[in-house]
Amino acid sequence: MAHEVTLITGDGTGPELAEAARKCVDATGVAIDWDVQEAGVDVMERLGTPIPDSVMESIRRTRCALKAPITTPVGTGFRSINVYLRQELGLYACVRPCKYYAGVRSFFSSVPVDLVIVRENTEDLYAGVEFEAGKPETSQLIEFINGLPADRKIQTSGEETGVSIKPISVSGTERIVRCAFEYARKHGRRKVTAVHKANIMKYSDGLFLETARKVAADYSGIEFEDRIVDNMCMQLVQKPELYDVLVLPNLYGDILSDLGAGIVGGLGVAPGMNVGDDSAVFEATHGSAPKYKGLNKVNPTALILSGMLMLQYLGEEDAARRLEQAVADVIAEGKDVTYDLKPHRDDPTAVGTQEMAEAICRKLRGE
Fold first, then answer.
1. What radius of gyration do the chain's Cα atoms show?
2. What domains, with CATH codes, occur in the chain?
3. What share of the chain has pLDDT > 90, as a percent?
4. How far is CA 356 from CA 77, 233, 285, in A?
5. Which residues pair with 223 in a beta bridge?
6. Positions marked catalytic
7. In whole angstroms, what is the distance from residue 313 CA to residue 31 CA?
C-alpha cells in the first residue's frame, strides 16, 4: 500500500523546492499518496490565516508531512508556523543531521564531519512566555523578582524591561535525551554530548544536565559527555570530527544547528525533521528566500535530503539509502548543480532547481 504523506508547498521558493523534492522521492519507486496543502504568507493574504485547518487535519490523518519553507515575519505579523506545528502536534524533537558531502564548498572539506543535532522543541525560551516592557503584568513580575534576595534582582523597572521565561522540565529533558540515545543506538552512533550553560543557569540548564546524566546511565553501550554551549561552539569550529550526536535545549539547538550546517557547506545542504510520539514533519533548515521566488535558482538539496529522512521514518531504508547516494553522486560530479555548489557562484554552467532534481532522478533510475 502507498504511504500517505502531507506535502506542504510553502511560500517564496517553497513551491519550487516542494516540486523538486517530490520528484526525487517518487523516483525512488516508493509509492506515496501525496495530500498537497498550502500554507504561508500567500495563504494568509487569501484566507486570513497562514495555516488553514485543512493543513492540520491532513497531518493528523497522515501523521507524516514534508514541508517546504515558509516565511516567518520579523518583528511583526504571525508567529512562526514551524513553532506552531511543533507545539500543536507534540513534535518535541528536532533532528538535524550535519554531514559533509564531497563536492560541497566548505572550509572543512578535508574533515569527515558527520554529526547530528537533537534539539528539544517545546520548552526553553521558545515556549513564548514573554512579558512586554511597559505592561502592568511586567511591572508586577519585576517587582516580585526585585523582592527576592539581592543576587536575583533585575535592578530595572517594568517600564523599560521585557522579560522572557525559560522553562526546562525533567519530563521534557528525559524525553529529548532519550530520543538522542535511541537515535544513536538505531543508527550505530558512538557518542551523545549534552550541551548546556549549567555553570550560569543552575536551576534550568543545571536541571537539563542532571537529568541527561541520569538518562545516560540507561545506555551503557554509548559514550556520554557534556559541554558548555560557548565552548561547544569553539569545539565545532576547531575539531567537529570528534562529535557525533549532540542533544540540546531549544535555543542552543537552533543556534548550533546553523553552525553545524555552516561547517558542512551551509543551510542549502542541511535537512531536518521534527518528530513526536506518533507523527513527524520533515523540512529543510533554511528559509523561503522570497527574493529568488520563481527563478528556478535555489539549491533543492536540503529538502530532498529531508525527503530521505522521511523515507527512513516510513521504514523505506533502501530507498532512503539510494536517494542519499544519488544526491551525493550528483554533488560530487559537480556538473548538474546549482550556483552555490559550483567552485564560483557566477559559474555559467550552474543549473536550476528542477534541473538538479532531474539529475538526481536520473541517478536513481541508473541512467
1. 21
2. 1-94+269-367 (3.40.718.10), 107-127+166-263 (3.40.50), 130-164 (no CATH)
3. 77
4. 34, 33, 19
5. 191
6. 126, 197, 230, 254
7. 14
Give the Å distances, CA to CA, from 335 to 26, 109, 213, 327.
23, 18, 47, 12
Q: What does each C-alpha distance from 109 to 8, 100, 271 come to in angstroms?
A: 33, 7, 18
DSSP reduced 3-state for 99: strand
**What's phi and psi for 348, nearest 5 deg?**
-70, -10
Task: Match 528559509 to its residue by C-alpha cell.
Answer: 287
Q: Residues 275, 121: contact at Cβ < 8 Å?
A: no
Does this model's pTM top 0.70?
Answer: yes
- Phi first, then psi: give them for residue 205, nearest 5 degrees: -65, -30
Backbone dihedral angles phi then psi of residue 329, each to the nearest 5 degrees: -65, -45
Grid coordinates belonging to 360: 538526481
Amino acid at 64: C
Place of cell 536550476: 352
* CA dihedral of 352, 94, 58, 309, whole degrees rounded to 10: 50
Q: Is 140 helix (H, G, I), strand (E, B) or coil?
A: helix
Residue type, 273: M
3-state secondary structure of 169: coil
Tell me which residue has cell 517518487: 26
Q: Is pLDDT larger for residue 150 or for residue 25?
A: 25
Whole-Å CA distances, 135 to 36, 72, 125: 42, 25, 20
Most confident option among 39-43, 48-52, 75-79, 362-366: 362-366
